[in-house]
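Throughout our pipeline, every protein is held as a single compact record rather than as scattered files. Such a record has a labelled line for the sequence and another for the backbone structure tokens. The remainder of this section carries one protein's record, kept here as part of the documentation:
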Amino acid sequence: MFLFFLLEEIVNEAEHAFDDVSDEFSQYKNVKTIFEQWKYQQNKSYTEAYIEICLPKVFSPLIRREMIDWRPFEVII
């Protein structure tokens, strides 16, 4: 029972981790769109900035926040 409450507290805290960040930069899909537009519209500067190397560090916190309450083995009734 304690573990359930601890998990819920962690999930609640994670939901507020990006409260002070604009929606444009706090959602994975929005940030991904920005990088895709840069890649296809200004490929030379995108390549020169070595963005492929930076992407894991940019997306890691966003993906972790989205997956924190993922429970793949939980049966939904």
Observations:
- Residues 8 and 55 are 29 Å apart (CA to CA).
- The chain has a mean pLDDT of 88.
